[in-house]
Amino acid sequence: MAVRDGEESTTVMDDYETLISTTDVELLKKAWRNEKGAPEILQFEDALVKRIQEQIQLMEENVEEFTQIGIDPLTVSLYHMDLDRTQFLLRSYLRIRLLKIENYMFHIIKTDYLWARLSEPEKAYAKRCTDAMDIHLQSSVLTKLPENYQSILKQSLISEEDDMVPKPHLNMFVVGKGKTYLPARIEPKGFQDTHTDDDRKPDDREFEVERGDLFFARYKVIMDEVIKGDIDLI
């Protein structure tokens, strides 16, 4: 079957974009954007982070070697820019995750699927944070309150749930980009807790996503697709 020039050009560009998007630095950018955009903590990219750390070490060795043997300063400067950019992305990615752990430590620790998303060092950090917070509040506040109000997790001992534990706001709006076609969904599950059938808007009821589409939606509606990798956050 004949292929038109326009179709061939589009195919070549799609292949090029696919190739570029699979480099480790681009994968780290995607993980960084998703982590920054998502209200909850996402799966730690363990294998990717290890590869990036190895690449950073190699780049540092190259920059040092080029400097010693007198390679053109402009070339050294370009290598140094790549090194700085990669280090910034990695540090920012890790900082965002640590900030989420600090904000939602008790919720993460008692939620199995969130706890499983942490790396081993992050789990140790979360445990240290909760232990330190518990000790601090017990010594400074809780022991001075009436007996029924000395829980760090509940407003009172008669509370049925941990109503003093901060949780991520999953109904916040995020900007997403479709990586593949996603069919329309009806009555998105993200609106089950906060909307009734009477106050749902038509736009909330149903929408579909084409590949490359940018859209604005509540995170809870698309969270499964974000986790599966069918939608990237911007």
Automatic annotation (TrEMBL):
> Which coarse location class describes where this protein primarily resides?
nucleus
Q: Which Gene3D superfamilies match?
A: 1.20.58.1030
Q: What is this protein called?
A: DNA replication complex GINS protein SLD5
| Taxonomic superkingdom | Eukaryota
Q: Where is the signal peptide?
A: none
Question: Which InterPro entries does this entry report, sorted A to Z?
Answer: GINS_A, GINS_bundle-like_dom_sf, GINS_Sld5, SLD5_C, Sld5_GINS_A
Q: Which residues form the GINS subunit domain?
A: 73-133
Family statement: Belongs to the GINS4/SLD5 family.
Q: Which UniProt keywords apply?
A: Coiled coil, DNA replication, Nucleus
- GO cellular component terms given for this protein: GINS complex
Does Transport show up as a keyword for this record?
no
Q: Which organism is it from?
A: Cephalotus follicularis (Albany pitcher plant)
Mind listing the GO biological process terms from this record?
A: DNA-templated DNA replication; double-strand break repair via break-induced replication
Location(s), subcellular:
Nucleus
Keyword Coiled coil listed: yes
Please explain the role this protein plays, according to its UniProt record.
The GINS complex plays an essential role in the initiation of DNA replication.
Q: Which residues form a coiled coil?
A: 42-69
Pfam families in UniProt = Sld5, SLD5_C
CDD domains assigned to the protein according to its UniProt record, in alphabetical order: GINS_A_Sld5
DNA replication complex GINS protein SLD5 C-terminal domain: residues covered: 196-234
